Amino acid sequence: MSSNRCAVCKYFRRRCPSNCIFSPHFPPNNPQRFTCVHRIYGASNIGKMLEELAMEDRAIAVETLYYEAKCRVQDPVYGCAGLIPWLQQELNIAQSELAKTRAQIALVSANYVAFQLNGVDDDPSSSWFS
Amino acid sequence: MSSNRCAVCKYFRRRCPSNCIFSPHFPPNNPQRFTCVHRIYGASNIGKMLEELAMEDRAIAVETLYYEAKCRVQDPVYGCAGLIPWLQQELNIAQSELAKTRAQIALVSANYVAFQLNGVDDDPSSSWFS
User: Fold this and answer.
1) H or E element at residue A81
2) What is this model's ipTM?
3) CA gap B125, A109 in Å, rounded
4) Inter-chain contact B41–A44, Cβ cutoff 8 Å?
5) pTM of structure
6) What pLDDT does A39 receive?
7) What contacts B69, CB < 8 A, 6 or more positions away?
8) Cα dihedral angle (A7, A13, A19, A21), rounded to 10 degrees?
9) How far apart are CA B108 and CA B124, in angstroms?
10) Could you tell me the maximum CA-CA distance found in chain A, to the nearest angstrom?
11) Which candidate in A40, A119, B44, B110 could, as Cys together with A69 as Cys, close a disulfide (CB 3.0–4.6 Å)?
């Protein structure tokens, strides 16, 4: 019976009840997963958070809590929150470059059409790819 | 004296010592800030995390912990970790669109040069802006 205890009950050296709230998410063969979230949130807070969630949401919640806890252990100052402004900045740069490049294409296209229709520019290439 | 207690010591109705680890980061006029991180991490874990950090890193750590806690309160399943794959996906989309658009420009440019030099294509526009 004791070999079936989840990682949390094993950690606290207690019996693992059949309705243990941790058991589906903290298997005994991965004690490091619990150690990590326990270090950041504490077992009691994790239990409380799981209790407040619907059964079908708990697995995702444990995954995201574990992800955030791992990031916090690796980077105790910024945690995973440090990634968000960096990603937002990279996204802004890429989107603004894309808008600029699309505007250049629209200009090239417009110049080419004007050149074909009216011959208004003897050397349209001078402005096309500048 | 009691009016100078930090939000944490006020919450626990205890004297706020002059070297209180929470005091610089949890002013008494913003009790909600502490309530939020306390709900997710617990005061004891926050204290432990702060103790392990250099003085100059603690303010940023509290900011990022508060940010993550707010996200977890708002979205108990995904927390702020849910934002990261979304931002990464948006960044991948924007970067791949940018690469495609730049490749189109390079093709247009090459076709135009070939057209000017050799007249190899009577109607280069057919492939330029497709």
Assistant:
1) none
2) 0.79
3) 9
4) no
5) 0.80
6) 96
7) B36, B37, B39, B40, B41
8) -50
9) 9
10) 88
11) A40
Question: Which of chain A's residues have a Cβ under 8 Å away from the Cβ of B91?
Answer: 87, 90-91, 94
Spatial separation of the C-alpha atoms in residues B79 and B129, rounded to whole Å:
44
Q: What percent of chain A has pLDDT over 90?
A: 74
Question: Alpha-carbon distance A62 to A49, whole Å?
Answer: 9
The pLDDT value recorded for residue A2 is 47
- For residue B51, what is the nearest residue in chain A, using CA coordinates? A76
Question: What's the token pair of residue B123?
Answer: 């109607």
- Chain length of chain B: 130
Residues of A with CB under 8 A from a CB of B: 39-42, 44-45, 49, 52-53, 57, 60-61, 64-65, 67-68, 72, 76-84, 87-88, 90-91, 94-95, 97-98, 101-102, 104-105, 108-109, 112, 116, 125, 128-129
Q: Which residue has the tokens 């309705």?
A: A19
Q: What is the residue-averaged pLDDT of chain B?
A: 88
Q: Which residue has the tokens 């006029």?
A: B29
Q: How many Cβ atoms from other residues are within 10 Å of residue A126's Cβ?
A: 10
CB contacts of A81 in chain B (<8 Å) are: 64, 67-68, 80
Alpha helix (H) ranges present in chain A? 7-11, 31-40, 43-51, 55-74, 83-118, 125-128
